[in-house]
Design a protein that fits this description.
The chain is an alpha+beta fold and 615 residues long. It has 15 helices and 32 strands. The structure holds adenosine-5'-triphosphate and magnesium ion (MG).
């Protein structure tokens, strides 16, 4: 392609809308344009990158035995009602764009395709003889993200590869899952990014496991905890570790103490001269269940530890049945305005005890018939104690009175032990469970893929069953597997750039080479460049020709910015039958005889592809 004929517009200045390097560079180099919040046009260079990523994904999916298809983006509400996700996806999480057509039918734009694919499997898979089946598609997804940002990283319209597998049993599903795991590693390695596979939260879906694939980058929204020995890596949402040993409490007797100005653990420990690990702190949360019921949750945890809200949410979902609900829609720390709605009197914030009286909750008004749960507040606190606080003796905790704490307290004496849970947040520096000599390290990652053992959640809900060898009708056992194609393309830039621009991994670069003519009025330069341009393209090396009537400096700057791996300059050494060849990544420069250019580049390209690293 000739730059003189391309829509090729680069910007010298960083666009104000962009915060992270990859977003700035893709905008500056003319790869993408913002059309609306979280909605981008993929311009010709970007589209080539996306097609390359898609092709790698496609090859690895096919190699793993999956089959490509294309499912509708417009999806009927009924299917989502069958799975029970219509309300949560259109209202609570609000991530699905929903619409009403001219026949008053409700529809949604696909944020994901479990419902559609399961309905198809229900109709078409009848017998164990048809199994296993794994279908995938590469398609634009729509999600009304509340905070679209960082360009393609979190868009409201983005490209995803999603695959769904159907197996006869758990063992089959695990085998498919392993194949997908390997395929994902291959995809990331071939795309030339540094990544790590981590244990992930399977959340409310349950199932026996899920893994995320993280591209390591400081701008990543996820925190990863891992050990140096390579034996453990998990998303912080899911991570477990050994808490530090608790220090003994200096208090021997139960006593109420005046402790003014000690709302925080730090202030309290300073005032009482005691370690944080002998304090039981009581953290108040507000959970809203899917039937509208609000439950106030009091979590007692050791003072030096924090609550992992993802783990807490999972615990609360397990208890949904106690409130005639199915799932939790929102979990928050109630602010003053939220407290006003249900608090009968001001709470002793900073001084709450594990037995904070239920009378702090306003008594419920009688509810209209049929709407018992909606807008109601459970009349009692749900009291939970984290494992870390269970064995504490003679601990310090709030006295339920502002300005006062109690010391020397014990479970079973002054306080009843609440329901025990494991909701502690693992943090960097903790000892690893598999080997306490290993300490957890922290890194930031961009979630590129997520593979999931779904089990029978959707097949059971939609009645997607098959007849097994014994002649029984049983639900299909499913897995689902997503890769953010557009997110991956940008993540590669986030990981690989310098002050001058993008450094594309060869395998996903829009073009592999660019021939730059420093002076277009020099016919020797033009001729040599035209010949090289033709030869390279003929040899299958995708090559750009910068034949614009611009200064050499501008062309070099643009070539750096756009990040094409190899640059060939028909400059001064042409008189000796040579051209300058520059590697974008290292800036290594060589003079090559004209006739050696094609063979040398072919070698370099073959050697550089798929140099990703699994850390
Ligand atoms: P996140 O936690 O980042 O919102 P998710 O858990 O919602 O991601 P999945 O539903 O598992 O993601 O989607 C599969 C993949 O699609 C993700 O791993 C990610 O790479 C990509 N993805 C998800 N949401 C977006 C988005 N808004 N913009 C771009 N890519 C996305
Ligand atoms: Mg999401």
């Amino acid at each position: 392609m000739r730059l003189s004929q391309m829509l090729f517009v680069t910007l010298r200045e960083d666009p104000a809308e962009a915060e992270i390097p990859s977003h700035k560079l893709l905008l500056r180099a003319g790869y993408i344009r913002r059309v609306a919040s979280g909605v981008y046009a993929y311009l010709p260079l970007m589209w080539r990158v996306l097609q390359k990523v898609s092709q790698i994904v496609r090859e690895e999916m096919n190699a793993a035995g999956a089959q490509e298809c294309l499912l509708p983006q417009l999806q009927p509400a009924e299917l989502w009602r069958e799975s029970g996700r219509w309300d949560t996806y259109t209202k609570a999480e609000g991530i699905m764009f929903a619409l009403v057509d001219r026949q008053e039918r409700e529809m949604g734009l696909g944020p994901t395709h479990e419902e559609v694919i399961t309905a198809i499997a229900r109709d078409m898979i009848r017998s164990y003889r048809q199994l296993p089946i794994n279908l995938y598609q590469i398609q634009t997804k729509f999600r009304d993200e509340i905070r679209p940002r960082f360009g393609l990283m979190r868009g409201r319209e983005f490209i995803m590869k999603d695959a769904y597998s159907f197996d006869a049993d758990e063992a089959g599903m695990k085998l498919t899952y392993q194949k997908m795991d390997q395929a994902y590693r291959n995809i990331l390695r071939r795309s030339g990014v540094v990544f790590r596979a981590v244990e992930a939260d399977s959340g409310t879906i349950g199932g026996s496991g899920s893994q995320e694939f993280m591209v390591l980058a400081d701008a990543g929204e996820d925190e990863i905890l891992y050990t140096e020995d390579g034996q453990y890596a998990a998303n912080v949402e899911k991570a477990t570790s050994l808490p530090p040993e608790a220090e003994p409490s200096p208090f021997k007797n139960y006593e109420k103490r005046e402790t003014p100005g000690t709302e925080t653990i730090e202030q309290l420990c300073k005032f009482l001269k005691c370690p944080a690990s002998c304090v039981v702190k009581n953290v108040l949360y507000q959970a809203v269940y899917d039937n509208g019921m609000t439950v106030l949750v009091l979590v007692s945890i050791r003072g030096d530890q924090d609550v992992n809200e993802v783990k807490l949410q999972n615990e609360l979902v397990k208890r949904a049945g106690n409130y005639s609900a199915k799932t939790v829609l929102a979990l928050t720390v109630p602010d003053a305005a939220a407290q006003e709605k249900w608090a009968a009197k001001p709470l002793p914030l900073g001084y709450m005890a594990p037995n904070l009286a239920d009378s702090y909750i306003k008594p419920a008004k009688p509810a209209p018939v049929g709407r018992q749960a909606a807008g109601r507040v459970a009349p009692k606190f749900l009291r939970l104690v984290d494992k870390t606080a269970v064995d504490l003796k003679n601990f310090v905790t709030g006295a339920d009175e502002s300005g006062y704490h109690v010391v020397g307290a014990n479970w079973g004496k002054e306080f009843q032990l609440p329901d025990m849970v494991d909701v502690r947040k693992a943090t960097a520096g903790d000892r690893a469970i598999h080997d306490p000599q290993q300490r957890l390290q922290t890194a930031r990652g961009i979630e590129i893929g997520h593979i999931f053992q779904l089990g029978t959640k959707y097949s059971a809900a939609l009645g997607a069953t098959y007849t097994n060898e014994q002649g029984e009708d049983v639900p299909l056992v499913m897995g689902c597997y997503g890769v953010g194609v557009s997110r991956l393309a940008q993540a590669a830039v986030e990981q690989s750039h310098d002050k001058d621009g993008i450094i594309w991994p060869v395998a996903i670069a829009p073009y592999q080479a660019i021939v730059v003519i420093p002076n277009v009025s020099d016919t020797d330069q033009v001729q040599a460049a035209e010949t090289l341009y033709q030869q390279l393209n003929q040899a299958g090396i995708e090559t750009l020709l910068d034949d614009r009537n611009e200064r050499a400096g501008v062309k070099f700057k643009d070539a750096d910015l756009v990040g094409i791996p190899f640059r060939i300059v028909t400059g001064k050494s042409l008189k000796d039958g040579k051209v300058e060849v520059v590697k974008r990544a290292t800036r290594e420069t060589q003079e090559l005889p004209l006739e050696k250019v094609v063979s040398t580049l072919s070698q370099w390209i073959a050697g550089e592809e798929g140099d990703g690293v699994n850390r």
